[in-house]
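Duplicate of #3305? Posting structure anyway:
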């Protein structure tokens, strides 16, 4: 193709394109906003029929099979259970245990041994913790040197008595009467509280021919005119009347008096032998 012919054809195409664009702009200027595009009835019918065609196509191509509702499970009738007849079941046979003669003798010996140990333990503990109340004390009490025919305990106000600890309100006392059968020797008296703790100082008093002589703590010992009876007070006791009233209300708080004897005042502490250990009464004098 020649160069001039090519330019001519190109100019013609540009001219046609420009004419078409001007026609479109002219058409747009004459278009009114209220104007609507009319659609032919055939086009409407064709468009409305498309959804039905799509639904039919979907049904034909749907691979999911139709699931049937499960049928209820039919329970088989349970067999009728027979009621128990009430007849007891046969008892299980028990086997008796028989012992030989040797086994019986061994068990009897073991039982006798345990019984002997129990009796020995009771006697041992009773002697170790032997303590009688004043009412249960069997008089007269005869020792190696002294014979006590009467014995009483009580409580008294400390007052301003010499030899008693300051601040103490109530102190325990013990009254001892010697029998004429008593020889010569020495008594030692201890006062103890409910916890077995020693209260105050021990008191030692000598006697001869059934009469008390030469007390070592004159402030804590009062001897009768005939010399047969001595009343001994502790150097310590309750610091208030209220404590003593509580003591009177509870018998488990009972204090004790421990009486020992020896040959003379020069005897060592280990030479003193116990005569008795008794609980004090809660009475006041």
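Output from current build:
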């Amino acid at each position: 193709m020649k160069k001039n012919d090519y330019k001519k054809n190109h100019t013609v195409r540009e001219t046609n394109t420009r004419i078409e664009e001007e026609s479109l702009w002219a058409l747009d200027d004459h278009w009114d906003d209220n104007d609507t595009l009319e659609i032919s009835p055939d086009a409407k019918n064709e468009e409305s029929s498309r959804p039905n065609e799509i639904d039919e196509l979907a049904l034909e191509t749907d691979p999911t099979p139709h699931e049937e509702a499960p049928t209820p499970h039919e329970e088989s009738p349970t067999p009728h259970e027979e009621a128990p007849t009430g007849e007891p079941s046969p008892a299980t046979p028990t086997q008796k245990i028989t012992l030989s003669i040797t086994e019986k003798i061994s068990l009897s010996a073991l039982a006798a041994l345990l019984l002997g140990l129990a009796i020995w333990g009771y006697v041992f503990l009773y002697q170790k913790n032997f303590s009688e109340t004043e009412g249960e004390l069997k008089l007269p009490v005869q020792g190696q040197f002294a014979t006590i025919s009467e014995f009483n305990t009580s409580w008294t106000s400390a007052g301003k008595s010499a030899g008693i600890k300051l601040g103490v309100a109530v102190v325990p006392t013990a009254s001892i009467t010697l029998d004429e059968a008593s020889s010569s020797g020495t008594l030692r008296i201890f006062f103890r509280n409910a916890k077995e703790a020693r209260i105050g100082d021990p008191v030692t008093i000598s006697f001869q021919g059934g009469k008390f002589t030469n007390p070592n703590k004159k402030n804590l010992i009062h001897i009768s005119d005939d010399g047969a009876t001595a009343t001994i007070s502790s150097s310590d006791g309750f610091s208030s009347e209220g404590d003593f009233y509580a003591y009177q209300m509870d018998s488990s708080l009972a204090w004790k008096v421990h009486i020992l004897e020896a040959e003379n005042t020069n005897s060592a502490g280990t030479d003193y032998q116990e005569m008795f250990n008794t609980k004090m009464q809660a009475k006041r004098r």
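Confirmed duplicate; merging threads. The chain has four helices and eleven strands. Residues 126-131 have pLDDT under 50 and may be disordered.
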